[in-house]
Specification:
Elements (H helix, E strand, L loop, with lengths): L8 H10 L5 E4 L4 H10 L5 E4 L5 H6 L4 E2 L4 H16 L3 H18 L8 H9 L18 H10 L3
Parallel strand pairs: 1-2, 2-3
Helix pairs in contact: 1-2, 4-5, 6-7
Length: 156
């Protein structure tokens, strides 16, 4: 089920409990407290994945199991290391990695370039052949490639 909008927690819980092939949700609602409520009341096998890179670490803290990530197109290794560090109990290490990833999170979407515009620009900077975004997204801002390069240059 893909909605483009938040599904109420009670609805998700009904689906999780009553529909056997609904086993997980990608949570991009940006509300870790509500995610914690969902996880606390969902069946034990039901999984929650962060769908918002910047919320991945907070969602891991309330019981999410991973991330469906935009930034992983260019920071997949680091994102995986952050999740692994958290799962292994190295919260300080996960926080350090998360802090290093903040410029990538910020690059993903801005008022002048919402995702997927920055992502496609980043992929082009990385040498991958990707087309332009379909309308109505429009072209990337003039400085988008320079911004992508600065993000890449800042990665450890």
């Amino acid at each position: 089920l893909r909605t483009g909008r938040k599904i109420e927690t009670d609805t998700l819980l009904t689906l999780a409990h009553d529909v056997s092939n609904i086993v997980a949700v990608k949570d991009a609602a940006g509300d870790p407290a509500e995610t914690a409520r969902l996880i606390a009341r969902a069946p034990s096998a039901f999984e929650v994945y962060s769908g918002d890179d910047a919320c991945t670490l907070p969602l891991l803290a309330v019981g999410a199991v991973g991330v469906i990530s935009v930034a992983s197109h260019w920071v997949g290794r680091q994102m995986g290391e952050m999740v692994d560090a958290y799962v292994e109990g190295d919260v300080d290490g996960a926080r350090r990695i998360n802090a290093e990833l903040i410029p990538s999170y910020d690059y993903e979407s801005s008022p002048d370039a919402v995702n997927p515009v920055p992502t496609k620009t980043m992929l082009r900077v990385l040498g991958l052949k990707v087309g332009e975004c379909r309308p109505p997204m429009g072209p990337p801002p003039d400085d988008s490639e320079d911004r992508a390069r600065r993000v890449l240059d800042g990665l450890a």
